[in-house]
DNA sequence: GATGAATGAGGATTCATTCAT
DNA sequence: AATGAATGAATCCTCATTCAT
């Protein structure tokens, strides 16, 4: 494809990113929704979500690299798209946690917005570490240990 | 300051970043060590560490912005410096968790490397969200809720 | 032509020089070879070579200027190209002198490497003087007096 | 010596070159004059001049490098100084040749300006070759073979 | 007289974008 | 619709020169 051809389909370089994220976000979040719906149990829903999250980022390492970079940049053209993705993720996590609270499997005294960051941050950092290690180990196998930490925390319950 | 002046103090543009992180890292980690030593209790040590972490990043928002961007970029000149910072943080967290395991306040079945990402990731994402919100609310007030999530997790213990 | 355009055709500024000399050298030395082959007589071959040499440098004064500057600089990017040009010139002169020695028109006690410098140096200096004079007189008319000096020297043979 | 100090003694960078050449030229040409006066014989005078020329440039390789570069550049700040040096050299060579013509040791049909270039060029090229070889061999030992070529030329006199 | 930190014009190079074909 | 040669603003960096101490 010639240099100039890209400008027939995208307004400029930033627009490539913006459109890519719009497209990818929709695609990935449909998968997330589908995955979450596979279980009735709130904890299992969260486990399925995190597993799928790690799996998708492991499958598309380039996307993972760009996402990690864009997500943590303060002045980005793709700002609104990234916000949308975050928002969608938050919505899914919120629903799961609310269900968990309703069915008694999750604490009722949770600050939802913080819980979302608590989960997203840990997953992101897990992906980030995997990327910096060169993507050499199996990312998906981190799912269960992570869920265990989310649910039980690190404190001893003796 | 004239264009050329910067080159009297730094080898090149990358070197500015590298030297800045070397300097800042040393300074911040001395504070972290000091903070951690203020308490005997492992959970309180972790709380002090996180509080100081949020406090320092809140105090120096520009540093926070650059750190977040560099930390999540895969090809960075400041790579070794960032790695060193991470390593120091890991060491501190490791010590705290090991102490917590010894005195019975933390679970003994923890995968240390994952615990570190679990904590660092959640704190980073908390900072990230604060930055994207424009730094409008008090970041340090997130300390206790975060520690609570780290220790107890989100699962109900009924 | 815009600033950036040159970089479509040359790797960098040095490369302009290198490629120019490669191209010009080939072209000029083909002419030299052709010129030399026009005569059977060694002295006439030398005369044709020098005439063509002066003629080509007179025709392309810019090339002459750059060549004179590069040729006498100790640290040059175009070093290998210049060396090649010199080498080719040396080869041609060597062949002529060896033929002259064989047919008895040239002395047999000559140190070839010095003879080359003796000829090249005198021709170069002649060109150099012409350049510094502003290229105002006819350079080619220097051919016969130069050849006379090369062949007979300045000593009286009474 | 500090950066700024040089500007107390020289107007600018070019002026360093200009003053250096003025100084060096005077010094070297005094030596040349002295050397030439050591013999009564024209050929021996030329031999002494060339020997001293090669000797001085061999002794001060840095000067040789700068001289070779400046001498063959068309736009030089030190232009007038270089011209003066050339002029002095020409004067010396002219005197020698004129004496040689008077005493019968040199041909009377010589174009003086060309003879000078013939000699200077060959000597310069000899120095140039020595510089590019890294100054590894003894330059002064080229004197006699060079003089032989100047006087007798390369033609066979059978 | 000496200093050397600061200067900023100049130069090589890149790269996102345009536009004639 | 596709091309890719040409563009030139922007960026990093150098280095000759100045000037307050």
Detailed description of the structure:
The structure is a homotetramer of 158-residue chains. With 158 residues, chain A is mainly α. Chain A is 71% helix and 0% strand. Chain A is elongated. Chain A binds a DNA duplex (21 and 21 nucleotides) through loops.
Helices, strands, pairings?
The structure is a homotetramer of 158-residue chains.
Chain A lengths: L5 H4 L3 H24 L5 H18 L1 H11 L7 H24 L9 H21 L10 H10 L6
Chain A binds a DNA duplex (21 and 21 nucleotides) through loops.
Low-confidence residue ranges of chain A: none
What is the CATH architecture annotation of chain A?
Answer: Orthogonal Bundle
Q: Assess the beta-strand content of chain A as a share of residues.
A: under 5%
SSE order of chain A, one letter for each helix or strand = HHHHHHH
What is the CATH homologous superfamily assignment of chain A?
Tetracycline Repressor, domain 2
Helix content of chain A: over 70%
Structural classification of chain A: mainly alpha
Largest interface, C-beta within 8 A: A-B, 46 and 45 residues
Task: Please count the helical segments of chain A.
Answer: 7
Mean pLDDT of chain A: 91
Distance between the termini of chain A: 63 Å
Oligomer: homotetramer
| CATH-derived topology of chain A | Tetracycline Repressor, domain 2
